[in-house]
């Protein structure tokens, strides 16, 4: 397996297996299939609520721990120095491991600096091999780098043919960081799997569109974590090291990028006013994930959003989107803060 070398010398596989949105009851089998196919990088998160299933699959696999690279992430509700350390211990316990290869701050909200202090301490103790972030845009990333002792090793962000993040990658290279892609297939949006350019390139190599996209990211030195619950797709996504894209094919894919004001993202952007800031459903996802873990009870939330982007009818929002969790909070979140 091809690897990249992180800024502290740790070797990280360039292709791994992600478990975002895989239900816990399917995760163990999916990870079992991935490990059997040859994946050694596994990516989960506290907010995915499937760390235990990942841990069970690791334990049953018989793969030596030193051959694995395991990543999980700190969720917003556990931000802060003491909370982050407790959350780390909980994730480690669920995974059945005694150390993590990579621990990420999942979103740039809450007490990021306190979380970083906890993570840096755990890194010095040898319990985390590398620390990083996820979904950090350049302004927050530079701020974090300039005001912390350890430069994050990785920033895991949305990256795919329609949102290529070339400027972000250049900044990360200059700062000694590794770009990692989540959702490399753009959730199939814009007809990605039948896109004529990607399909034509795939046909030239006898490969699928998914394999072309993965090979394109790897050629760019981007670590990527596709996911699937279908064993044949899991194996197919790993079979991308026996062909190479030409410079002309790379240029054709580069031309698919349409990053710019007004473009829709798959993830909310804390600094992007072009798409109206944080959307209703995205705000709900942040809060509801915390509700489902019980972490929201008794807490006050700070939502970083553009002015006017946060909906006023919170009770209707919770009732409409998650009827089972409506009423868990005694009152709607009591505080919002607009990002300057």
CATH topology of the largest domain: TIM Barrel
Sheet with the most strands? 8 strands, parallel
**Percent of sequence in beta strands:** 5-15%
Radius of gyration: 20 Å
Count of DSSP strands: 12
The helix-strand sequence is: EEEHEHEHEHEHEHEHHEHHHEHE
Q: Strand order across the biggest sheet? A: 3-4-5-6-7-8-9-10
Structural class: alpha/beta
- Reported CATH architecture of the largest domain: Alpha-Beta Barrel
The first-level CATH class name of the largest domain: Alpha Beta
Helix content: 25-40%
Average of per-residue pLDDT values: 83
| Straight-line N-to-C gap | 44 Å
Count, helices: 12
Q: Can you identify the CATH superfamily of the largest domain?
A: NADP-dependent oxidoreductase domain
Overall spatial form: globular
Low-confidence stretches: 268-283, 289-340
């Amino acid at each position: 397996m091809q690897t990249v070398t992180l800024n502290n010398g740790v070797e990280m596989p360039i292709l791994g297996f992600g478990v975002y949105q895989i239900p816990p009851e399917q995760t163990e089998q999916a990870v079992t299939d991935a490990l059997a196919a040859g994946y050694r990088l596994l990516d989960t998160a506290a907010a995915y609520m499937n760390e235990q299933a990942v841990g069970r699959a690791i334990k049953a696999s018989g793969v030596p721990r030193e051959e694995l690279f395991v990543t999980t992430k700190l969720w917003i509700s556990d931000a802060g120095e003491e909370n982050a350390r407790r959350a780390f211990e909980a994730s480690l316990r669920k995974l059945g491991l005694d150390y993590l290869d990579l621990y990420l701050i999942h979103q740039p909200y809450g007490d990021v600096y306190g979380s970083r202090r906890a993570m840096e301490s755990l890194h010095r103790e040898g319990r985390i091999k590398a620390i990083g972030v996820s979904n950090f845009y350049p302004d927050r990333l530079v701020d974090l780098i300039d005001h912390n002792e350890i430069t994050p090793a990785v920033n895991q962000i949305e990256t795919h043919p329609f949102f290529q993040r070339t400027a972000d990658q250049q900044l990360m290279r200059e700062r000694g960081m590794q770009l990692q892609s989540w959702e490399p297939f753009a959730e199939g949006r814009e007809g990605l799997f039948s896109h004529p350019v990607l399909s034509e390139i795939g046909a030239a190599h006898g490969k699928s569109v998914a394999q072309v996209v993965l090979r394109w990211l790897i050629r760019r030195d981007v670590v990527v974590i596709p996911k699937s619950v279908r064993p044949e797709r899991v194996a197919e996504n790993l079979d991308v090291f026996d062909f190479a894209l030409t410079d002309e094919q790379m240029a054709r894919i580069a031309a698919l990028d349409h990053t710019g004001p007004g473009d829709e993202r798959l993830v909310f952007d804390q600094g992007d006013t072009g798409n109206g800031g944080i959307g209703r459903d995205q705000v709900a996802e942040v809060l509801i994930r915390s509700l489902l873990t019980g972490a929201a009870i008794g807490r006050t939330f700070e939502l970083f959003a553009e002015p006017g982007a946060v909906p006023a009818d919170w009770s209707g929002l919770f009732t409409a989107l998650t009827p089972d969790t409506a009423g868990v909070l005694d009152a709607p979140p009591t505080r919002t803060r607009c990002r300057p």
